Amino acid sequence: MRQKLLALNHINDDGVVVIVRLDNAQEAFRASEAAIAGGVKALEITLSTPGALRVIERLVEEHGSNVSIGAGTVLDGHSAYASIAAGASFLVSPHFEPRDDSNSESLSSTHGERGILPHRDS
């Protein structure tokens, strides 16, 4: 629950989420590091970026206590759970329908104008 509230506060307080969508993981990581150095507190790494899950893992390892790292372009349940396993504190999806199974209880969702933000509940 703490991680979910931290992510929501970062997004609400700053009013911005930097969306990182680049051609490779190294560029995505460097751009994310630059954004964090500039004071950004919430980043969305799109899963359309090659190696996105590893970028999320590295960013969470290095900055997770101060910055909310999320996954974007989450198109299915497998991608959602892989993103959560990588440490994403929020997910952005153009469309997401949680399944009715025991694992879905760990997610809560906030419906947005352009998608749904299921948040990690831990």
Basic shape: globular
Task: Please estimate the helix content.
Answer: 25-40%
CATH architecture: Alpha-Beta Barrel
Structural class based on helices, strands and sheet pairing: alpha/beta
Q: CATH-wise, what's the superfamily?
A: Aldolase class I
Give the CATH level 1 class.
Answer: Alpha Beta
Q: How many H/I helical runs?
A: 4
Indicate the CATH topology.
Answer: TIM Barrel
Question: In terms of per-residue confidence, which ranges show pLDDT below 50 for 5 or more consecutive residues?
Answer: 101-122
The helix/strand order is HEHEHEHEEE
Going across the major beta sheet, what is the strand order?
1-2-3-4
Give the domain tally. Answer: 1
β-strand number: 6
- Look at the structure and give the mean pLDDT: 82
Q: Major sheet: size, sense and barrel closure? A: 4 strands, parallel
Q: What value does the Rg take, in angstroms?
A: 13 Å
Taking the alpha carbons of the first and last residues, their distance comes to 4 Å
Strand content: 15-25%
